[in-house]
Amino acid sequence: LENDGVLCLDKSITEIESYEDYLACQGTDCTGAFRHCDGLKAAIMPGVESIGRFAFWGCPDLTSISAPKAKLVDEKAFKQCNKLPKVELPLATQIMDEAFHDCDVLTSVSMPNAKDIEKNAFSECDTLKKVHMPAATKVGQAAFRDAPELTEVTMPLAEDIGQSAFKDDLV
Fold it and tell me: The whole model's pTM is what?
């Protein structure tokens, strides 16, 4: 982690494990690689294809992520990243349980290749307005529940839509 709060991983790193492989937040309870890392503002991950469970959960200052090769965003990877305004993951195909749950300022999501959106993936994202996932075929239970500002959803292929997937939303 550099002095300016930017984490820049070498492009040879293709996976952020679900445990303490790249432990940056020493001295705290870090079951995820960068879980609860105060001061982490940006994560630049040019070669990462898999973002593991709890990887960035609760990073209070994270405002930007870049993971152009990420295909998997695992369970609770960015949960409660409350300063993250947008997510653009062009190759992501799988978004697991609570991956972006309770991201307070998240307003837009663009994942053109995402096919499988698991339960509560974006639930309680209070300011989420726009979701672009044209390849999505499965939307899990409560995936976008309690996103009261959600007005624009692009998911023309979605056939398997779980219970309460859009509960308490405007769409």
Answer: 0.88
